[in-house]
Amino acid sequence: MKVLVTGAAGMLGRKFCKKLAETGIIAGRNVESLTRADVIESPAIADAPFKVRSVACDLSEPRVAEELISDRPDVIVHCAAVVSGEAEANFDKGYRINLTGTQYLFDAVRKAIYMPRLVFTSSIAVFGAPFPEVLGEEFFTTPLTSYGAQKAICELLLADYTRLGFFDAIGIRLPTICVRPGKPNKAASSFFSGIIREPLNGQEAVLPVPDTVRHWFASPRSAIGFLFRAAEIDGSLVGPRRNLSMPGLSATVGEMIESLGRCAGAERVKLIKRQPDPVIMRIVEGWARKLDASRALSLGFAAETSFDAIIRAYIEDEHLDI
Amino acid sequence: MKVLVTGAAGMLGRKFCKKLAETGIIAGRNVESLTRADVIESPAIADAPFKVRSVACDLSEPRVAEELISDRPDVIVHCAAVVSGEAEANFDKGYRINLTGTQYLFDAVRKAIYMPRLVFTSSIAVFGAPFPEVLGEEFFTTPLTSYGAQKAICELLLADYTRLGFFDAIGIRLPTICVRPGKPNKAASSFFSGIIREPLNGQEAVLPVPDTVRHWFASPRSAIGFLFRAAEIDGSLVGPRRNLSMPGLSATVGEMIESLGRCAGAERVKLIKRQPDPVIMRIVEGWARKLDASRALSLGFAAETSFDAIIRAYIEDEHLDI
């Protein structure tokens, strides 16, 4: 199997490539080669049992996508995107990277006339408030950010291109990924990871929203599991509605903090500093609190069922001594 | 008021411009000028009480949109589109005209930095089966044609651009327009008008689907009413969800034919020839049968409540002697 990962230097891209190097298998078959594309240099992979090519490139420039798929990858994992906060701050960049770049990739595959599995990382940002306590599988997409609009548009393109037989794609609507390793990013959701990650690393964290805020989460480990499952699943089981809300865990900030206390002790909880930020609060108010992910669950996608499990996954995967 | 109409030579565009010339008023104010754009020459308008400019142009070519809005029209009615059958038969043309052309128009307005009311004619083709008997206001858009995907994508852009204050737009999801005057077109829905129009004109009509097929209709007269209402409505009453399912009438083909008999006599009904067409049947099976249009109704949009009224509107508006 030849695999292409876009956004390979991003958090999910890196973890996906690392896991791929560990197992050497995708969709039940041996990986022959991996192409990693990102605007920045992708980090080295130690001891990959297959050929690795890294390309620093901008997918939103003409002809880049054609070059990336020139070896006709069997699986394309398309993670490349500008995050929500940046897409909101920079309208042109957001649409260029998140929409035009995706269109270029989709059209390059269409014109290459072959049938790869394409996995697209969409987001719960396709939904916008007001909505019911639990978002049903048939709830409409009325995003309240440009990022959400861009993801929703790509979902529509993905479904139409798949219907027309240009490729065989699955869009996976990721919950907010938590706990993200590393540094805060420009996503408005960044603090959700920060209030767990920074205390676990002995650092202070800023909480810009009230404890009552409820949101929808999955760990990076689960997200990587979604990508592998989406790469292997029989498309005929999915049917024409190719965009799936991924399973997750619905938790309040208060519940997250209690969980932190249980997993790592009350002292670490004291590192969380409450500094209300009305801009972030306004954005977060427009986000989903809980989704019905029955379809994805029945198709074999799985996520954590407690926030303790999410924190423990972070501690294990990042090799923390707690 | 300066008004721009794209697709001005199309059925809705022509009727809208004719009505505008009759009244000379839009959104409660006098019309100062009208720009009519279409790929073909727009038909002449007799005795318009305002300046009329006609431009034969392709909106999907760069810089055309900028030229069209150079006089900063207060109201833009964007009807230009390739119809469903043609968009399905010609992938490139469909996306170029229906998506790229709309993006060019939206971006031209965005860059002109002013705040027109933009009215976009969307379609019930944004919905795709399977769905419930009545489609709720929050039902998701999973189109089963490229035309539907293009309309759904433009709806998302429209909402995002409006949210960001680039313009003040309303998307109106038109029911299937029936009875369309003139000749059949390439829309897969064309026969719905044909089985009424041709018999009323003493000609044979082909019915490619069973009498039990149920669909969602409004007359051209109602559609023009929607456009005028959308041009004048207070945007703050609409809120952030800028795409509205227009009211219509749910009727079966059998009910339509009964209505034809009541309005024009049994002899005309005999002109309908049943010739099942599996391709058209397959497309039509994916279409909505009935919509909840409560939001639009509460915002003052109105349509026929009987198929007899739809047929009588056609007889009156086309000056038939029946």
Strand content of chain A: 15-25%
Question: The CATH topology of the domain at 2-175 and 219-245 in chain A is what?
Answer: Rossmann fold
What CATH first level of the domain at 2-175 and 219-245 in chain A would be assigned? Alpha Beta
Reading the helices and strands of chain A in chain order gives EHEEEEHEHHEHEEHEEHHEEHHEHHH
Question: Quaternary arrangement of the chains shown?
Answer: homodimer
Fraction of helical residues of chain A = 40-55%
Architecture overview:
The structure is a homodimer of 322-residue chains. The first copy, chain A, is an alpha/beta fold. Chain A has a domain at 2-175 and 219-245: NAD(P)-binding Rossmann-like Domain (Rossmann fold). Helix content of chain A is 41%, strand content 18%. In chain A, the strands form four sheets. In chain A, strands 5-4-1-6-7-8-12 form a seven-stranded parallel β-sheet, sandwiched between helices. Chain A has a three-stranded mixed β-sheet with strand order 9-11-13. A two-stranded antiparallel sheet of chain A has the order 2-3. In chain A, helix 5 links the parallel strand 7 and strand 8. In chain A, helix 1 (11-23) packs across helix 7 (220-232) and helix 6 (190-200) packs parallel to helix 9. Chain A is globular, with a radius of gyration of 19 Å. In chain A, 52% of the residues are buried. The interface between A and B is medium-sized, with 22 and 22 residues.
